[in-house]
Amino acid sequence: MNLETVKAVKELLSTPQNMVIIPHKNPDGDAIGSTLALWHFFKNNGQDATVIVPNDYPKFLKWMPGSDQILNFEKENHQCKDKIENATVVFTLDFNHLGRVGQLEEPLEEAAKKIPFVMIDHHQAPSDYAKIMYSDVEMSSTCQMVYNFIEAVDGVEKITSEMASCLYTGIMTDTGSFKFRSTTGETHRIVADLIDRGAENTEIHHRVFDTNTPARLKLLGVALNNMKILEQFKTAYITLSQDELDAHNYQKGDTEGFVNYGLTLEGINFAVIFIENKEEGIIKISFRSIGDFSVNEFARSHFNGGGHNNAAGGRSEKSLQETALYFESLLKDYKNQLAV
């Protein structure tokens, strides 16, 4: 954080505030971990704060300290709207465009006309809705940025075991258990400090990764059976239809991490998963890559998405089959890039 941003944040926090803290739609470990850690920090320092999620999130994250205090906009609509209308400041975490919050977009746009917004995020191409922006695309995770935020306002010694657990979870999940290129020495130093402050790393890993249901593992089997490998493009992709999800009692978060299996294949640099969502009328897409191939640019150019250089998301309004065929048709233009 630069000195100007730190000064603005300290001035904002110098007086009591009614804070609302919001992650993106379909929040993941980094989104939930960062919002809850910040919520704990503010509550422990006498501020009024509420975390509002646009919609539900996976069960394997609901053990996190403070999770039972989160409000769900889809289920607690009136209460959430009241909180936003009475807020004096809104913190938005792990996203940088209000289009990422689903039905929360309209009330947040109205709030942005009246009160300051603070953005903490590590995705590319931020929009300008926030008065105070802490944006850094080189960061491993928003949780690492929240740690830096707390450090900048002289609050590291106030990090509790609950906060440490939330921050560790977000860093762990957004770095692929510390294997992605965005994981730096500083990331590991922060993680070490979080463990010293009470984050039980073995238990956290168990709670996130070792609570599968038989249905989820069978769905993984379907996904792997559906995988198509395009060796000439060093690409592998998975498709999952709504019928396949329904047949395996799909629960939110069940497909988390499936896309990464393609990258475990020798010689594959680009992995994708296409998941049919009939309720929303779209195909949800996750992109992953190894090396310099930018899935962020690919997603922005062709699938109304974006994210990071090696991890991004997108969507398609075509059918599942049409989307996969369209995707394959694009690859010839990227053959040279994918060959590196």
UniProtKB/TrEMBL annotation:
Domain annotation DHHA1: ranges: 248-319
One Pfam family recorded for the sequence: DHH
DDH domain span: 19-171
Keyword terms, alphabetized: Hydrolase
Gene Ontology molecular-function annotations: 3'(2'),5'-bisphosphate nucleotidase activity
Domain of life: Bacteria
EC number: 3.1.3.7
UniProt-listed PANTHER family: BIFUNCTIONAL OLIGORIBONUCLEASE AND PAP PHOSPHATASE NRNA
Listed name of the protein: Bifunctional oligoribonuclease/PAP phosphatase NrnA
